[in-house]
Amino acid sequence: MPSAGSCMEFDHAHAAPLLPSRSVDGCPGCLLQQRVAARNGSPPAKELSFVALISLCSALPISSLFPFIYFMVEDFNIAKSDTMVATYAGYIGSAMMLGRFISSAFWGIVADQYGRKPVILIGTFSIIIFNALFGFCTNFWMALMARFLLGLCNGILGAMKAYSSEICSKENQASGVSMLTTTWAVGLILGPAIGGYLTQPSDKYPAIFPTGSLFDRFPYALPCLCISAFAVPALISGFFIAESLHNHKLKPKINVMDPSAYLEIEKLEDDTSVMSNLKIEKDPPLWKNISALTAMYIYCVWGLHSMAYSEMFSWWAVSSEHLGGLGFSTSQVADVLAIAGTIFFLFQLFLTPRLTKFFGALRMVQVPAALTIILTSLYPLFSKLDGVQLWCVLVLSQSLKLILSTSRQRGLANGVSTSIMSLCKAFGPSIAGFIFSMGQVRIDASFLPGMWMVFGSVSILALVAAVPSFGHLSMKSLEK
Questions:
Q1: How far apart are CA 319 and CA 380, in angstroms?
Q2: Is 60 exceeded by the pLDDT of residue 432?
Q3: Residue 254: is it exposed, middle or buried by C-beta count within 10 angstroms (0-12/13-18/19+)?
Q4: Is 459:117 a contact under the CB 8 Å cutoff?
Q5: CA 279 from centroid of its chain's CA atoms
Q6: C-alpha to C-alpha distance for 6 and 264, rounded to whole angstroms
Q7: Is it the case that residue 401 has pLDDT exceeding 70?
Q8: Nearest Cα to 447, choosing from 459, 460, 456?
Q9: CA-to-CA separations, 45 to 36, 50, 182, in angstroms, rounded
Q10: Residue from 219, 205, 424 nearest 309 by CA
Q11: C-alpha closest to that of 467 among 301, 218, 248
Q12: What is the pTM of this model?
């Protein structure tokens, strides 16, 4: 029989851990686990609200950049020609992802050793500081360093994934995971709106921000400050959220006059030997699991594709018409991205789970891939439209692209692929900037001129990502 003071009872017949009977004094994970069990399956509203708030803070610095980064680089006067603006914009877009990739393993170790909460709080604080500093940058190198430090000091993504699953009971873990994807969808609405409508405020709202004012001298500071201000209450609320990491290295508080209390320490020391005697069927090594490697490949290459497309779409929308663009303002880009984000959010909320359940995860990779290749190949034709026709086509195509992008990402990620995905996203904007600049240089070429080359490369990336899903692997194996 398990000791009365054990942190985790163990059913030897079924070799499966049961709910904790009593927490080890000083272990925050055990205390939280008890509260989870006491809720009797009810979702943790307070903790899930915190997950949503922090996840949104993490998404906004990325999505808010799309409407104005092209204009910001133009104002830095670092590009020797108009065709080189996208190249430098791509470097800034890559900087944050590169910093996140470099530090992701470190923050993972910190989260496992010292808790999820410190990593989340430090990451939120870095958003407040470095995102605000980015808005006040006056040259390219300052902006590049601010974005790099924002990614380097931000380990929120991994810690939030762990925290969202640990605060929920088995019945509600899907709610914790879906909260992350849902708030990202909300970020796709709010981020471009903040970045588009609040950039260059002295030009758009001269009565409020007159010439010579602070936000006239720093035209990109207002959206960055708003996002940093939004992160302040998130940081404060984080201090009142329980830690979810188990820490059994803490010395329990016991009654020295009660010998049975020492069983609590004894049990913790014996847990390792109990586990070592269990016969657990292990999965094959990752490098021998062809299905897992294929799923990771699709996930990571598609991440590169999605990041490149997100950057290219915004650059194409704001670049001048003589270079193949649409000549949009930041507010017009915000209109398109915010409306498309709203449609995507509703689709994600009501239709994506049903479609995935009905068709299966593999079909939700193959069909969207084929549609994406066709859709992105048609983008150069959109510049021939104008007025209501152009706006309708842009909103519908951008909405469809967001929907197709998300459908394939559900359930494929694991620790290794997440790290590789960060690397792919780090190179994505830089590669996109190079290709976009090349397309603008080749605007009058006889073969794949201008935007035909740009969006043709996006279609090729989608094809490269999807081809393995049609290979020799069995449907059931890759679906798993």
A1: 13
A2: yes
A3: middle
A4: no
A5: 37
A6: 5
A7: yes
A8: 456
A9: 11, 9, 15
A10: 424
A11: 301
A12: 0.80
Banded model confidence at residue 439, pLDDT cuts 50, 70, 90: very high
**Residue for token digits 């999605």?**
306
Q: In whole angstroms, how far apart are CA 145 and each of 39, 57, 345?
A: 45, 20, 32
Give the amino acid at 302.
W
Is the pLDDT higher at 40 or at 467?
467
| Share of residues in the chain with pLDDT > 70 (%) | 76
Contact between 400 and 290 under an 8 Å Cβ cutoff? The reply is: no
Residue type, 316: W
Cα four-point dihedral sign 10, 11, 16, 22: negative
CB under 8 Å to 224, separation ≥6 — which residues?
64, 131, 132, 134, 135, 136
- pLDDT (tens digit, 9 = 90+) per residue, 444-462? 999 999 999 999 999 998 8
For residue 137, give every residue at least 6 positions away whose Cβ sits within 8 Å of its Cβ, in sequence order, or none. Answer: 143, 146, 220
Cβ proximity of 325 and 383 under 8 Å: yes
Mean pLDDT across 170-183: 70
Q: What is the per-residue pLDDT for 303?
A: 80
- The closest alpha carbon to 203, from 224, 219, 192, belongs to 219
The whole-angstrom distance between residue 45's C-alpha and the CA centroid of its chain comes to 22
Going by C-alpha positions, the residue among 183, 223, 204, 186 that lies closest to residue 65 is 223
Position 466 pLDDT exceeds 60: yes
